[in-house]
Design brief:
This protein has about 850 residues and is α+β, with helices and mostly antiparallel strands. It contains 22 helices and 32 strands.
């Protein structure tokens, strides 16, 4: 087709040449005249001048041969002045009738072009635009403009091309052939084409055919067989190139025919994009591209991520406006598995549909490495999604459904063991505003193993500001259905229980990091659940007598006996009210007013943690701490926290408040190896719990957040002045809350704490350590023997090892109690209730 332009250039200068030929023919024989060197040189110079005007640069023709039936120009080289482009033609042969030319009679000619080689290191559209401007600036008419020569046919053989489009795309064509006929269909073929996008994507086609009907600006490009390799590199130039491609495609969708930002030139105002094509004489305004029977491979370095076979593409473009873009991918002859369909029915509107049915999850997992996948060999994923513009302000509307079946997750932050046997479905719609970093939805439903919850609201992040206003809804469902639906790793000890009744919940959270004080948290639970059978080895029934408690410590598991009737157990009436009030003040001020969960404290924890941008503050109630200590292992995981929620509800439903406080005070750790208020009062002050003073009670309460670390105060043998000041401040706070009388406050303000000297014998029972194999039945028998024959010899129950201490530290050191038998995990959906 490029040769067509050169053929036209030659024909428009033939008139001058023909006149010269006529004059020479009158003087000498026609054969001598045709071989005259001066005439050939004038024709060669004329061709070079016309060629240079067409390409807006320089042209060089090595040789021109004149014959009775036309002319032949060999080794033509053209170099436009704009853009790093080169064009060379091995030979152009134009067949014409010299006799008709002498009579200036109109004649159609055929140009045969052989060996066309095009190369452009700069964007080829810049070169085309420069040629267009040069052509438009040329004067019309002039000598030789009415030569009578009309190009009717152009045949191009053995053409190659290596050109760039914009900053990203490079195209290479090999062994191209083309034929153009006036008022007839034009056709071009090539054996192979190679396309490269940036440094990471290469596509190679098989045989391709380009056809354009007569007198129509629309063309059809069809390629049979192609192979594409895409290297997914998340670092360096590849990531930059990916972002550039996405921006260019997005601009093509929402910006119509505007030039992508990567291009270095702009279209002339008032001209269409098709004018660039017209400059080469192609008159092409729209094109449909179809590629079939392809093979696509996605890699990351030397590793293959996924192979898609067969693959096919269809692209319909009109003046650079994408009208239809469709891609189909199959899997090893299994038929289409993925369909990507982009349509642009009218100017300013578009619609993108993505459909994938039952894609093997291992193929999908490679694309989403951030998810801690586990046991996905038989997993499947399906997606149906549609995206389209929502108004004229750049917002997008996205709706659809995503399903992932038969998969597991393995991450230490989720659970100690992998969570397998999961199915999830996400369905809903959302509005996206990329410019504002804003997303909003009227409803997205998440279904996990048949348990559904809904989310509505909006979230926005711009700069340092993050804001959310979301509502979470758990529709009314069977309490026991939740337990049955989730894997044993999730349900834990809750999996041994059965429930009756129904549960529903609504949670609303509104938070803005620039106005944290205005944070709102509203939790409404419709709790009609009841425990039909607790079934747990560690049910509350075992707390009615002596039982074995196992605690995971850094050095190993400590096993001790506690419970009513055991040596170290202290009933609540035998505990000083100062101890209870101090513990409630420090740990859970609303204990007697909530049902296991302190919503205002949870809100405060959210505010403080978001403000600090890390987890620095919890909101565990005394019941939650007790559930953690008597039922769960020592591990900080999401599953354990959810189990803690259900077990907290269980304790609140099966025990009264005083019993919860009593059990808590008898199992909680006050120092290394010191468990329970009785051993703590005797160890630190050589007193019974009922005899503790207000300041002694407050001191013991301050140990609870981090008993091992704060044991250093005892090791140093004295309470510092700063510690006394803090303890007295707590006493004033208790008095202000009505938990300490004026007289006791006055005593606390002057009291000086004195520890039991290490050399002094402890009067009374300390923590009663036993062999790890001891069972509850054995523990009860031991207590019976103790009651009948007196104190049974055992470990003194406390550790005196050196522990690095910071008496002012606010860190928490967690030593959760292990259950007497291996536990089975919890229920994610039950964990949704607060």
């Amino acid at each position: 087709m490029v040769g067509c332009g050169y053929a036209m250039a030659v024909s428009r200068r033939l008139k001058i040449t023909l006149v010269i030929v006529v004059l020479l023919a009158a003087a000498v024989a026609a054969g001598v005249a045709l071989g005259f060197p001066a005439l050939r040189e004038r024709v060669r110079t004329s061709i070079e001048r016309r060629c240079g005007a067409i390409v807006a640069g320089a042209c060089h023709v090595d040789r021109v041969e004149l014959a009775r039936d036309g002319l032949i120009a060999t080794r033509i080289r053209a170099t436009p002045t704009v853009g790093a482009a080169e064009l060379s033609v091995d030979q152009v042969a134009v067949s014409l009738s010299w006799w008709r030319a002498l009579r200036r009679a109109t004649q159609g000619v055929t140009a045969r072009v052989r060996g066309v080689h095009v190369r452009s290191d700069g964007p080829v559209e810049d070169v085309v635009a420069a040629i267009r401007r040069a052509r438009e600036s040329q004067p019309r008419g002039g000598p030789g403009s009415r030569s009578g020569v009309r190009v009717d046919r152009v045949v191009i053989e053995d053409a190659t091309a290596d050109v760039r489009f914009g900053l990203l795309f490079r195209v290479q064509l090999e062994q191209g052939h083309a034929e153009w006929r006036r008022d007839a269909a034009s056709r071009a073929t090539w054996r192979q084409a190679t396309f490269r996008t940036g440094p990471f994507t290469t596509a190679r086609t098989g045989a391709c055919t380009l056809e354009q009907g007569a007198n129509t600006p629309r063309a059809e490009l069809t390629c049979e067989g192609f192979a594409s390799r895409v290297d997914i590199d998340t670092a360096g130039d590849s990531a930059t190139t990916v972002r550039s491609i996405v921006r260019a495609l997005f601009g093509a969708l929402v910006g119509g025919g505007r030039r992508a930002s990567g291009s270095r030139s702009e279209s002339t105002p008032g001209t269409s994009d098709s004018a660039s094509v017209d400059a080469l004489g192609l008159s092409l305004q729209s094109i449909r591209i179809v590629a079939r029977h392809g093979h696509v491979v996605f890699t990351h370095g030397d590793r293959t991520i996924v192979e898609l076979t067969p693959a096919s593409f269809e692209l319909d473009v009109t003046q650079r406006h994408v009208r239809v873009a469709q891609a189909r991918f199959g899997r090893q002859g299994a038929g289409p598995a993925i369909l990507l369909d982009l349509r642009r029915p009218t100017e300013g509107s578009w619609q993108l549909d993505l459909t994938a049915e039952q894609v093997p999850l291992p193929e999908v997992a490679r694309w989403v490495p951030v998810v801690p996948w586990h046991a996905i060999d038989t997993g499947r994923a399906s997606v149906h999604m549609r995206a389209e513009p929502a108004g004229s302000d750049g917002m997008l509307s996205v709706d659809g459904e995503l399903s992932v079946e038969h998969f597991g997750l393995a991450h230490r932050g989720l659970a100690h063991d992998p969570i397998d046997g999961l199915d999830i479905n996400v369905r809903g719609s959302a509005l996206l505003d990329p410019a504002r970093g804003h997303v909003a939805t009227e409803g997205v439903n998440f279904t996990l193993n048949g348990i559904t919850l809904g989310v509505a609201g909006w979230a926005e992040r711009r700069g340092d500001r993050t804001a959310v206003d979301v509502a979470l809804r758990v529709p009314t469902l069977s309490c026991d259905a939740i337990r049955r639906a989730l894997p044993a790793v999730v349900t834990g000890p809750v999996g041994q229980m059965t429930f009756t009744g129904t549960l529903g919940a609504d949670v609303h959270l509104a938070l803005d990091t620039t106005h944290l004080d205005a944070t709102e948290l509203d939790v409404r639970v419709q709790d009609l659940c009841a425990v039909a059978h607790d079934g747990m080895t560690n049910s509350v029934r075992r707390f009615s007598g002596p039982f074995v408690q196992r605690v995971q410590e850094p050095a190993g598991v400590r096993t001790f006996v506690t419970g009513p009737g055991s040596a170290a157990w202290v009933a609540l009436p035998d505990v000083s009210p100062h101890v209870v009030n101090a513990v409630l003040t420090r740990e859970d001020g609303r204990f007697y007013r909530h049902h296991g969960f302190n919503i205002p404290e949870i809100r405060g924890a959210i505010v403080r943690n978001v403000g600090a941008r890390r987890f620095v503050y919890g909101a565990s109630t005394i019941t939650m701490q007790l559930a953690k200590n008597v039922f769960l292992q020592r591990e900080k995981t999401l599953v354990r926290k959810l189990q803690e929620v259900v077990l907290t509800w269980y304790l609140e439903r099966t025990m009264d408040k005083d019993s919860i406080v009593e059990l808590y005070l008898n199992v909680v750790e006050f120092g290394p190896g010191i468990y329970g208020i009785g051993p703590a009062a005797r160890f630190f002050f050589n007193r019974e719990p009922r005899d503790l003073t207000p300041l002694q009670s407050i001191y013991l309460a301050t140990l609870l957040p981090n008993p091992v670390t704060r044991f250093g105060t005892y090791q140093r043998g004295r309470v510092s002045d700063d510690m006394h000041t803090r303890l007295r401040a707590i006493a004033r706070g208790m008095a202000a809350a009505g938990r300490l009388s004026a007289a006791d406050l006055a005593t606390a303000q002057t009291e000086v704490l004195a520890f039991r000297p290490p050399s002094t014998h402890v009067a009374g029972a300390l923590t009663q350590n036993v062999d790890p194999a001891t069972t509850d039945t054995t523990a009860a028998a031991m207590q019976s023997v103790r009651s009948e024959y007196g104190e049974v010899a055992n470990d003194d129950g406390h550790a005196t090892g050196d522990a690095p201490i910071d008496g002012d530290s606010d860190e928490t050191a967690e030593h959760a109690v292990q259950p007497t038998t291996p536990e089975a995990p919890i229920n994610l959906r039950v964990g949704g209730r607060i």
